[in-house]
Amino acid sequence: MTRRRELVVATGLVLALLQLASLAQPAHRMRRIGFLSLGKSESEVAQIGQVMLYESLRRSGWEDGRNLVVERRSAEGEVARLTALAQDLVRLDLELIVAALNPAVTAAMRATRTVPIVMIAATHPVETGFVETLARPGGNITGTALEGSKLFAKSMQILHELAPGRTRIAVLSGPAGPGFEQMAQGHRDQAMRLLQPLGMTVQYFSVRQASEISDVLQQIAATRAEVLMVTNSGVTEPRWREITSFAIQNKILSLGSAKLFTSVGGAMHYGSNLQDIIDRSVSFVDRILRGAKPADLPVELPNRYDLILNLKALRAIGVTPPRSVLLQASEVIE
Predict the structure, then answer these.
(1) Cβ atoms of 223 and 170 closer than 8 Å
(2) Which residues pair with 254 in a beta bridge?
(3) 167 neighbors 226 (Cβ within 8 angstroms)
(4) Which of 37, 177, 263, 284 could connect to 118 by a Cys-Cys bridge, CB 3.0–4.6 Å?
(5) 40-88 per-position pLDDT tens digit
(6) In angstroms, rounded to a whole number, what is the distance separating the alpha carbons of residues 207 and 175?
(7) How far apart (Å, rounded) are the C-alpha atoms in residues 109 and 82?
(8) Maximum distance among all Cα pairs of the chain, rounded to whole angstroms
(9) pTM for this prediction
(10) Beta-carbon neighbour count of residue 311 at 10 Å?
(11) Which domains are delineated in the chain?
């Protein structure tokens, strides 16, 4: 009986000690980050991008609702809303803000110079003042960037091989953000030097909000454009189907700088691999959450590129890809 009593007491002491030990353990800290974008939160592009981002985070050990909270803010295609949304994220005292594309990066940079900002697919980050250099960002911003001039040059080279008779090019872009226009002029001058030997000409059209797109498309039609290049933007994305339908109706070859452009009727895409860009961007999130400083993390450029051809769209406008172009394609949509 005594031994039994001693066993019960000992067991009780062990359980009590285990309980005290568990109470003494620090609570698992939920990490909090923000995500800022210009695009529409419910668009097909945004939904696919969100899934890819969350899966990449999970592979890095961060899962929304388990050890991570992601505060998402989307300007729904209205660039004027970005400033207030960025300020709202800063007030939440987050550990970092992920900003997709230049307008969102600009808004985040204006809202804070202390909260770390991770860029996704920024263009010309040095020229626009986001970072001091790619190797040494120097402030609170780092992440992934695209080589816009090189991508344009390669796209035009492939385009000339794909449809050499098409020489009149229209470029449709969304809002670029403050300080970008001066830099863009240098890019345009470079583009002209590239295109002139190929007998090509280019005209630029931009929209600040989605409601302007229909009118601008009519302006493009009036120029008798034979190629329409659509740059990646949260303003143009929700209207991609309208843009690609317009291109097919007017026998224009549509070229998108985003991979998903071809899945909604675009004829061609050449650009950085989307999964690669997202995974590289998430690697910055992971390193910063584990203690790294943005100033110490060099900006990364993509090393994987995709050429995607939509054969149905090309047939609809009377273009048959030569074998040399088909062999370069990483994906062909029938």
Answers:
(1) yes
(2) 228
(3) yes
(4) 284
(5) 888 878 888 899 999 999 999 999 999 999 999 999 988 899 999 999 9
(6) 6
(7) 11
(8) 103
(9) 0.83
(10) 16
(11) 31-146+274-296 (3.40.50.2300), 148-272+305-333 (3.40.50.2300)
